[in-house]
Amino acid sequence: MNVCLIDGLREIVLAAGSFTLAWSHSVEKTRWEEDWLVGVAGFHLVEARIEGSGAGMEPPEGAVFDGRVWRWQPQMRFQQDQLVLARSGATGGTWQICSQGDCRAIPETGGEGPAILKPCP
Fold it and tell me: In which band, very low, low, confident or very high, does the pLDDT at 111 lie, cut at 50, 70 and 90?
């Protein structure tokens, strides 16, 4: 199963099977990363990582600091049928999606409304 980006009227295939979604926190300016698997039923979050804590982004109980980032396996009860990437314009950067060593930027500004990631064939 592939991951498609729906950005306004465009639909673009971005990744297959698994991917990392990354961004910078708008206040702390630290990197946040999430590893996702995609299947017919939607997206399943496998692992999350943050460089630091503060401003509403504290690592949860059980997170482990590996000397660089805090890591943990989120316990989501349900798969997500889509991922909505908000565009506040506050981070001064982009969303980034990486799969199999290839990374693509999803601009935070310039689109009408949010960018949406959905499973696609």
Answer: low
